[in-house]
Design goal:
The protein has 13 helices and 22 strands. It has 477 residues and is of the alpha/beta class.
Amino acid sequence: MPTDGMHGLVGLDFGTTTSSALVAQARVRRNASSGRMELADFRETYRSELEFTPLNGELLDLAAAERLLDRWLSAAAVDPADLLGGGALLTGLAAQRANAAGLVAAIRRRLGNTLVATADDPCLESWLAFQGSCAALSRRHPEKWFIHIDIGGGTANFALGRDGEVHATGCLLVGARHVRVEPGTHRITGLSLQAATVLPSLGIHPTLGAQLSAEEVGRIAAWSANQIVHAATGESVGGADPRAAASVQVPFLPPLSSSQRQAAVITLSGGVGELVYAAAAGRQLPPTTAFGDLGIELAGRLHDHAAWRPFWTEFIPDGGGRATVAGLLQHTTRISGTSLHLPDANLLPLADLPIVGTLRPDLADDALRHLLDLARRSTTGAGLRIEGLGTSAEAVRQCGERLAACLVATGFPADRPLVLLLESNAGKALGQCATRWGRVAVKLLVIDELDLPDARYAAIGRLRDGVVPVSFHGLRK
C-alpha cells in the first residue's frame, strides 16, 4: 500500500445471503470547521464481488469463510500493520449461527485487535447502513427526516436521520431468506426459527421439500412487507397475531409526531433495496427465486406500496447492497485529538473494551466509586465516558481530583488499563490531574476530542502520528 500519508481501511460484511469486502485508504487531517481530527480523502483500492455467505447446514462454513477472507486480503494486498480502521460485522441470520464467534475469531487472527469485529449488533448495523447509504442524501435535504431501511436476507434495519445524523434505530427479524427455496422454484430447502414460528399464524404449515403455492408465497411476501411498513410508519407490528411481535429484535421508536413520521422520506439499501430501485428504474429483475429465497417477491411488494413509490425515483441513496460495508469502511473509526494522556503506548491496542458508564459533573462520588468498581472487575481493562467537562482549567482540575481520590479509595488495580473517553480537548491535563502527576499508580489513558455514541464497547488502535483510532460497537439506540 502507498505510504504517502495514507492509511489503510478495511470493511468486511458477512450477511445472511451474501458477503463482501471493501478496502480503501484515507488521510488523517484536522477538520477546519469542527477542529477535530478526522479521516478524509478516501480512495477505494479494492472491492470484492458479492459472494454467497458460505454455509454448512445451519452453521457457517468456517473453512470456506476463511478461504474467502484470505482471497480478499491477498487480492487487496492488505498488510494488517498498515490498517488504521474499519471493521468486520456479521449481520442478519449469519450473526445468529451457533459458530458465528468462530468467524469473528478468524477475522481477528488475520487483522488483529485494532478493528471492530463483532456479530449481532443490530443498532450498529442500522447506523452503519444509514451512514453508508443515506447520510449524504439527507445532507442534501437537511430540512427532511429520512427513515432508512436496510433489508437483507435476515433483518430489516431501521434508522431515522436528519442532515446526516442518526436519531433512532431499530431492527426487525424480517428479510428475504427466512424461507430458503430451490432456485427457480418454490420448493422449501430451509426455514429459520423465525419462519417456523410465524408461518403457522399465516395458515402456512411448511415442511422441508414441500412446494409453496403462489398464493402462499404472496401471503409471506405481503406479511413481510407489512411488518416493514408498519414499523416505519408507527403502526403496531404484529396486528392481531401475538406471535408476529417476535419479529421485533429492537423496537424502532423515532422521536417524531405521527404527522412527521408519515411525512418522512423512505430510502432503502441491502439486497432487497437494490431490487426495489432496479424495478423503479425499469430494469428487468432476476427470474423467480434466482437467489434461493423470496427477496424478489418481497421487493415487488415494497416497490408497489403506493405511499412510498414516489420515493424510489425521487430520493435514491448511495451504497445499494453494500451500505453496511461502506459504513464500516468510512464511518466506524473516529480519530482522537493530539492532546492524549498516554504514558505507555504499549498498552495499545485494546479490543472489546467495556464502557461501564458516564461521569458527568453532577455524578455523586458514591456513584463514581461504583463505576470504578465495575471497571476493576474487567481484567483486560475498561472505559469510562466523560461528558459535560468543558475545557476550563478549574473544571478539569476538579474532575481529575475527584477521579484521583476515588481511584485511591477503591484501590484500583495498578495492572488494569482504565480509559477515559471525552469530547473536549483536555486529555493530557485531565490525565495528569487524575494521576496526581504520576503519584497514583494506575494505567490511565485519556483519549479526547471524540464524538461519543451511546455504546457498550470500544476498540482502540495503536498510536500513529500522535493520534489513535477509536471505534465503538454495541450501540444502544
